[in-house]
Amino acid sequence: MFMGEYQHNIDTKGRIIVPAKFREGLGETFVITRGLDRCLFAYPLSEWKLLEEKLKKLPLTKKDARAFTRFFFSGAVECEVDKQGRINLPAPLRTYAELDKECVVIGVSNRVEFWAKGHWDTYFEESEGSFAEIAENMMDFDI
């Protein structure tokens, strides 16, 4: 399980350090793709395969299902951690998430998310104000 929040910078070559606490869970090779809310999602290969199987079951005839799977899979790439614990984020993913310098890397249960620091700060501030309402809505999911 991934949890916690870390701040790192992207270097001029598009590389970012994967926090040591996340490297063991992600493995040497993992999948990273466009996520929701303008961040990137990273999954260990085992989690990616589970997600892939679920998405394959979505009906091809549903417009939203086609749109979501295209969005999710077209941005996906396998990343390898180098000897310094960094990954090289492809330019299209950096552009999508607007990652150019300061980043926040967070653990979210079965995935790791990469955020531009400004986007994360705004998201967190906005979510913090409605956390009670979000928690109440989560009751519908038996949490």
UniProtKB/TrEMBL annotation:
Q: Which Pfam families match?
A: MraZ
Family annotation (SUPFAM superfamilies): AbrB/MazE/MraZ-like
Q: What is its main location?
A: cytoplasm
**Coiled-coil blocks:** none
Its cellular-component GO annotations read: cytoplasm; nucleoid
Domain (SpoVT-AbrB): residue spans on this chain: 5-47, 76-119
Q: Which InterPro entries match?
A: MraZ, MraZ_C, MraZ_dom, MraZ_N, MraZ_sf, SpoVT-AbrB_dom, SpoVT-AbrB_sf
Instruction: Specify the superkingdom.
Output: Bacteria
Q: Which GO terms describe its biological process?
A: negative regulation of DNA-templated transcription initiation
| Entry keywords, A to Z | Cytoplasm, DNA-binding, Repeat, Transcription, Transcription regulation
Instruction: Give an example GO molecular function.
Output: transcription cis-regulatory region binding
Localization (cell) = Cytoplasm, Nucleoid
Q: How does it assemble?
A: Forms oligomers.
The record's comment on protein family reads:
Belongs to the MraZ family.
Q: What is this protein called?
A: Transcriptional regulator MraZ
Q: What organism does the UniProt record list as the source?
A: Pontibacillus yanchengensis
The organism's lineage?
Answer: Bacteria, Bacillati, Bacillota, Bacilli, Bacillales
